[in-house]
Specification:
The structure holds two protein chains of two kinds. Chain A is mainly α. In chain A, 63% of the residues lie in helices and 0% in strands. Chain B has six domains: 2-59, no CATH class; 77-171, Alpha-Beta Plaits, CATH 3.30.70; 172-302; 327-418, Calcium-transporting ATPase, cytoplasmic transduction domain A (Distorted Sandwich); 428-493 and 769-818; 494-520 and 634-758, HAD superfamily/HAD-like (Rossmann fold). Chain B has a seven-stranded antiparallel β-sheet with strand order 1-20-25-24-23-22-21, sandwiched between helices. A seven-stranded mixed β-sheet of chain B has the order 18-30-29-28-19-26-27, sandwiched between helices. In chain B, strands 10-9-11-17-12-15 form a six-stranded antiparallel β-sheet, with no helix packed on it. Classes of the chains: A mainly alpha, B alpha+beta. Chain A binds chain B through residues 1, 4-5, 8, 11-12, 15, 18-19, 22-23, 26-27, 29, 31-33, 35-36, 39-40, 42-43, 45-46, and chain B through 57, 61, 108-110, 112-113, 116, 129-133, 175, 178-179, 182-183, 186-187, 190, 194, 211, 213-214, 217-218, 221, 225.
Chain lengths: 46, 818
């Protein structure tokens, strides 16, 4: 089962990267307004 | 011959939708058959402007305003003033200016589309972005290419009256809080899911056989993940529990903190010793789910606290001050010295309280008094800031400016009322403190019973009990059900700020209603007509030359009648109109006006109409007809009030109008005579509502005192009530203060709101019952020592899932059927 010693830390690294991305998104203001972008996208130019 | 017209909006079978706003309107019978029909000239202007710039796609959207464009027609010159610019406008390095504007009338996806295309309508605008929830547009433009007033004017013409956005500092603070909360949720979620994955491997390993090395690895990984979860997102529970304990209070966070600490400590000991359950999955899931519940709750409640900060600029920022050499200079309105003289043009809002020095004009004082009718003012009359000067220029001697003005005192009272209001104690919070006490007692009992048999087992069972009884589902039950109900209500045209409002509304007490605009249509409507129908086209000939509310009332009353053309028309302010139509001399005006002109004419005997405004028509020296005008009662008012009364609401009418008018409306709608209050100014309205709230008593479940109103004159009363409700078409200031804002016309929306609030509370109670059943079963299993980590891990998410499903599937508000 020694493969676990590689795979599990690797999984944690991936989680860390994803979490880092999320924190960046929150801190750069992408989550500030959760309503407008949702309606903006469906009303794009024809 | 007396024809009494039914007080209903004039809709005939031949109506068509206005090409801009979609309101039903009469097709113009002007011979030229155009495809686009408009309900008003403002809609036509907005339509033309939109099409001229190739934005015609707007009119193909299914979802549209549903309300006529009502531009203020202001010049917005104060937006270009230095005082305004230095306060609200920021400049960047490349010379572009940036301003945040609060817009009136924003409510749908089409609004976003249109407002964000303002750069195409006004040259020099680089970018316009809208935040729908805050109705806030962020505009970036080149001040060298176009003045801000131009942009403001365009937005106004489209029906989105702009005001400077004032909540800047508090919005920034909230943004920081929001982001911190989202960060905590993200971290807690990432850790919880991974600890659960590891836990799954451990449970699977328990059933089969896992080698000791892997087992230890997984347990240590869980520990390693749980420590940051406790120290970062989980810290809020420890700080809040500690604060509650120091204040000597029982709080939901106390057992939560206890369970987290006990579970994590025992888990850590068991990880190091290599035997026994580790609890980490439960600990992490608990942190995550509780944070999500709290976020939902905070979002809902925050909207309610936003109330007064969005109060719009109701008075202009600048005043035109007379200098020593009789020239005029624009100065900031707050800096006008008492005793100086300012000039106010027709169509402008008066910036100060004062006294008319010269000129005479008509004022619309609806913002202060709620009166729909215009008032005539002459030299020596007192005028108040915020009222609109309609017809002619006035010179005003300043008596009060800044915070001493009446409108400023009313707004201060709004703030004061909002602050004084006792917070609503939610059902879940009331239960929580009892649950906390019970859980702690049970934990002690469990420990004492088991300790005598087996000290290790005693610790494990207590921890299992604490985790399994954690009010996780209970903490989620209310916020989830509330946010689901609020979302459904919004789709039904009822905007509820904060779920606690729904809980308050489910306890009927007093329902206080404003008259003008709430129970009545809020506009001058023809109530009865005594005279010959052939006169109608002649009357319209004269009235079409006037902008007076009575003239507009005539035009609305007879939309199918084609107006003759008037040869001469002379207007007398405060009197009437005289002119020549079809070669006949015609006079339309108040009884006093007619009597002064035709002292010898004989008057027909007409039925008495007290409480209405009579308008007399004379042709060639003979008094021939009478029309009476009044503010017609909304057609659905009587039925809606009867329904609400049957459900336990006591009703009160609170009006700024004279007793004759409010008694008539009150009697027609079944108000008890002692529940009709007339001549109530904004200050008295607030005091009355406050008295009712005080009389309703404190305690955790006081009956609700709901105030329904539409004007700024109701804003203080709306803020003072347990639940303030702003009706459709009301002033934005009162909508901003209100806990509930309606976009549905009429009082039927109140019945829908009452329905929705009751159903929402049913869903919440059901959720709480689910949550309690799980907890009870959990307690029994844990105390008897039957709970294994596997069972606990399954029970927790299942109980939360039930609550989530119950919230989303529960029927609360039903969309508008019409």
């Amino acid at each position: 089962m020694s493969v676990l010693f590689v795979v599990v830390p690797l999984a944690l690294v991936i989680v860390g990267v994803a979490l880092g991305g999320y924190l960046w998104a929150v801190r750069s203001g992408q989550m500030d307004d959760l309503e407008t972008p949702g309606v903006r996208v469906i009303r794009d130019d024809e | 011959m007396a024809t009494l017209l039914a007080p209903s909006p004039t809709t005939s079978a031949t109506t068509v939708a206005c090409a801009h706003c979609g309101l039903q309107t009469q097709p113009a019978d002007d011979g030229c058959n155009t495809t686009d029909v408009f309900c008003c000239s403002a809609c036509a202007t907005a339509f033309a402007m939109i099409h001229e710039h190739g934005l015609g796609a707007y009119h193909r959207f299914a979802e549209r305003r549903g309300a006529a464009v009502r531009p203020t027609g202001r010049a917005f010159a104060d937006f270009d003033h230095e005082a305004f610019q230095s306060r609200y406008v920021t400049h960047d390095a490349v010379g572009l200016a940036h301003v945040a504007l609060a817009l009136e009338g924003v409510h749908c996806a089409s609004c976003v589309w249109l407002i964000e295309r303002v750069p195409l309508l006004v040259t020099g605008v680089a970018r316009a972005e809208l935040d729908v929830r805050l109705s806030r547009a962020s505009v970036t433009w080149d001040p060298r290419a176009t003045p801000l007033s131009e942009i403001a004017h365009t937005l106004d013409a489209l029906g989105y009256t702009p005001h400077p956005y004032r909540g800047g500092e508090r919005a920034a603070l909230r943004q920081r809080e929001d982001r911190a909360m989202l960060v905590r949720i993200g971290v807690a979620g990432a850790i919880a899911t991974n600890v659960m994955l590891v836990a799954l491997a451990l449970y699977a390993g328990e059933l089969n056989t896992m080698d000791a090395g892997s087992l230890a690895l997984f347990r240590w990984i869980s520990l390693g993940l749980t420590i940051p979860a406790l120290l970062w997102p989980g810290r809020v529970f420890f700080t809040s529990a500690w604060a509650a304990l120091r204040a000597g209070m029982m709080h939901m966070d106390v057992p939560i903190a206890l369970a987290l600490a006990a579970g994590a400590t025992r888990g850590a000991i068991n990880t190091i010793s290599g035997s026994g359950p580790i609890y980490f999955d439960g600990v992490c899931a608990l942190i995550f789910l509780l944070l999500v519940g709290r976020f939902l709750q905070a979002r809902g409640q925050r909207a309610a606290t936003d109330a007064t900060e969005q109060l719009f600029a109701l008075t202009p920022a600048t005043a035109r001050l007379r200098q020593a050499d009789d020239t005029y200079l624009d100065v900031p309105a707050d800096a006008v010295p008492i005793g100086s003289v300012i000039s106010v043009h027709a169509g402008e809002t008066i910036p100060v309280d004062g006294e008319v020095l010269s000129g005479h004009s008509t004022l619309n004082r609806a913002i202060l008094t709620g009166e729909s009718a215009d008032v005539h003012v002459a030299v020596g009359d007192t005028v108040y800031a915020g009222t609109l000067n309609r017809t002619a220029a006035l010179q005003v001697t300043v008596r009060a400016s800044g915070d001493d003005r009446r409108i400023a005192r009313i707004l201060a009272q709004v703030d004061e009322s909002a602050r004084r209001r006792a917070p609503v104690v939610l059902l879940a919070d009331r239960l929580a403190s009892r649950v906390v006490a019970v859980v702690l007692v049970l934990a002690v009992i469990t420990f004492t019973i088991w300790f005598r048999r087996d000290s290790t087992a005693a610790w494990d069972h207590v921890i299992a009990l604490l985790i399994v009884t954690c009010p996780c589902a209970l903490a989620l039950a209310t916020p989830l059900a509330m946010s689901a109900a609020v979302g459904r209500a919004a789709r039904a045209g009822i905007y509820v700020k904060g779920g606690d409002t729904l809980e308050s509304l489910s306890r009927p007490g007093w329902l206080v209603l404003d008259k003008t605009g709430t129970l009545t249509m809020g506009q001058t409507t023809l109530v009865s007509w005594d005279g010959d129908a052939t006169l109608q086209s002649m009357i319209l000939a004269l009235e079409s030359t006037s902008t007076h509310p009575i003239a507009a009332g005539f035009r609305r009353a007879w939309p199918d009648v084609r107006a003759d053309s008037a040869d001469i028309a002379t207007h007398t302010i405060g009197g009437g109109i005289t002119g020549v139509v079809r070669g006949q001399r015609m006079t339309i005006g108040s009884p006093r006006f007619i009597a002064a002109r035709l002292p010898d004419a004989a008057w027909p005997a007409w039925p008495d109409t007290e409480g209405y405004t009579p308008v007399i028509i004379a042709v060639d020296g003979a008094v021939v007809a009478r029309a009476t005008f009044g503010d017609a009662i909304r057609p659905d008012a009587a039925a809606s009030l009867a329904t609400l009364r049957a459900r336990g609401w006591r009703t009160m009418l609170l009006s700024g109008d004279a007793a004759s008018v409010s008694n008539r409306v009150g009697a027609a709608l079944g108000f008890a005579p002692d529940c009709i209050v007339s001549d109530a100014g904004p200050e008295e309205k607030a005091a009355r509502v406050h008295a009712l709230v005080t009389a309703a008593g404190g305690g955790p479940t006081p009956p609700c005192v709901a105030m329904v109103g539409d004007g700024v004159n109701d804003a203080a009363a709306i803020a003072a009530a347990t639940v303030g409700i702003g009706v459709h078409g009301g002033a934005e200031a009162s909508l901003a203060t209100a806990d509930v804002a309606m976009t549905r016309d009429g009082l039927a929306a109140l019945v829908a709101l009452d329905d929705g609030a009751r159903r929402s509370m049913r869903v919440i109670r059901r959720n709480i019952i689910y949550a309690f059943s799980y907890n009870t079963i959990g307690v029994v299993l844990a105390m008897s020592g039957h709970i294994t980590p596997l069972v606990a891990a399954i029970m927790m998410p299942v109980s939360s899932l039930t609550v989530v499903l119950g919230s989303w599937l529960g029927t609360t508000f039903t969309p508008e059927s019409a």
